[in-house]
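Q: I'm writing up a methods section and want to include an example of the input and output format. Could you take the sequence below and give the corresponding predicted structure tokens, formatted cleanly so I can copy it straight into the document?
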Amino acid sequence: MQEIRARVCRRRGAVLAGVLAAVLVVTIVSLSLGDYAIGPAELWRTLLGGGDRVQSYVVFQVRAPRLVMALLVGAALGAAGALLQSLLRNPLASPDLLGISAGSGAAAVFGILILGLTGPLLAIAAFAGGLVVAAFLLLAGSRRADGGFRLILAGVGVAFLCVAVTNYLMVRAKVELAQAALIWLTGSLASTPWWNVAIVAGAVLLAVPAVVACARWLPLTQMGAATAASLGVPPSTVRIVAVLAAVLLTSVTCAFVGPIAFIALCAPAIARPLLGHGAVGIGTSAAVGAFLLTSADLVAQFALPGYSLPVGVVTGAIGAVFLLWLLATSKGRQL
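A: Here is the clean output for your methods example:
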């Protein structure tokens, strides 16, 4: 048993180290590429405080906030997806398909267009919208044995309802506000100030204790409610903590960069085969999510010469292909 545990720990460490190395490579590329190219030597000197004024401005005021936001949002969505998929034991359980992102988006659009909210107040509105949807979904799946399957179906319905509400608000809004809201709804990391990054980082740190606790509790709950309760882990408490953490991570990121599609779905589905032992893999999913979003942002910036796409367009295209692949595999056929 100890030998198996040691082998699992070594594989987990190797996978996490490999993903973090890939994240480091993408980070260096993100800070180097652009209209004002910076070589590796100049980038290293600038990061240490030795670059000229132009290099320092480009790195620390233009590229670094966007990069750090991409890392935070990708990690948050990857962790949220891992929490929900492990809790519901369903590879399609993600904030996108469960309607949590749509609920946060609808509440945020209402705050932007009707209430004129910005900054932290907008984040609070998005969190409230996601929490309302999550509470409804938990109620919908709490009384049946197939609660996970019912949650997926209920989430799809709630997502369509939230999209309808959002479209109604967009039609009623002024053209200028509707255009700004549409760009936000697509999901974009452009023009990210440091204060936005600070708020998202604070929210992620606030969710860390709950995520760490769930990483310890979820494997026990997967052994059955009776077994988990006998070991001192009440399944109802685990469900509430996991959902609240997932809603917090999803809604806060949604409030500042818009609903980034499919990262929460793809990251855990990639992390689990890499780990190869059926673990929850929340930390690995967070690292994979950070890599996916930073890579997608690079594609969004440089895929079309002279034109920068919203990153949500790229993640949506990649996620749609990934979802079709997932449904075509044995995992998808078992849903």
